[in-house]
Input
Amino acid sequence: METSSNLLRTGRVVRTQQELNAILLAHERFLLHKAGGATAQLSAMDLSKLNFAQRNLSDIDLSGTTLRGAVLARTNLARASLYCADLRLADLRHACLSSADMRGTSLRGANLSCANLDNANLRSATMARPGSDPLLNMEKQRGGGVDFSNCSMKRASFNGASLEGANFSGAMMQGADFKGAKLTDVSFKDAVLTGVNLSDLKVSPEALKGAVTDPSAACVARAEQLKAMVDVHYQWIRTGGREGAPANFDGEDLRPLQSYLAGRHLTGLTVRNAIAIGVSFAGCQLQGARFEGADLRDADFSESDVRAASFRGARLTHARFAKADLRALKLVDGRAQSVDLWEALALAEQFSGAELDCRLEDLGFRTMDAEAAA
Output
């Protein structure tokens, strides 16, 4: 098998942006089974600083390709082959790299914030700072580490990877494998590390500040009590408040419930400052629910009714709102109450397909892109 250094020494065909655009368009037509389509042949080329942004390039072969400083933001690279590719300083923000082959890839100084790398293979990838490499002055100025902040990296493999200076802050890393990885000056601040062997990380407690690990035994044991509270809450709704009692999940860890709440009538539920990472609220009736300050990363609100719900200050990274109802709720006194997204952390595309009767900005929403630019 060729090593990364061998591939990077070979001569390369250089493409212009115009030539690249034609190749990428043909690849997209190929994926759609349209006339004139052809799978892209771009392996072992020099495509540095070219623009691939917002294209559908799933299953593309970019093995051994030089993509230094290339723009691949919001690009679909699902199942792509990036084996031994040079992605130094590349812009991969919000890109989809699920199940991509990234073995031996060089990612020094790349920005992958909010990207999706679920099931990606990053074995033996290089993310370390470049030291004295004179070609990467810009990279050294900004630290050289890879930015994986707020990525979804569930079940990603970093086996044997060199990870000096990498930033995993806020990343979703359930089931990720770090066996044999070299971790120096790495941050897992606020990352989700459930199902991760923490002994493989070998980092300081400071590097794990705020990280979310597996639910405690006490939390798992409390799951049956929480389920009983859901049943009593429904009785309260069904009888118009004559029987039962509203459920109060403030500060609770709801992760052991997983899909138990899906499809239920939970109008007026309070979930303030709770941990509900990966919990499914799909198809729920959640009118007027209170999620202020809750950690709802990777939660599923698809087809739910969240009219008049408050997500003020909630963490919503990678949460899904497809076909959710976010319109204003008409109250009995004739007023209308809107959803509150003030200071909620999310991306606008997470609400694609949701029912809205105003702009997200009118609900107090400020995209994470705007936060980063501020």
Q: What stands out?
A: The two ends are 45 Å apart (CA to CA). Helices lie at 4-9, 17-31, 137-141, 217-221, 223-238, 368-373. The CA atoms of residues 76 and 91 lie 13 Å apart. Residues 1-9, 130-143 have pLDDT under 50 and may be disordered.
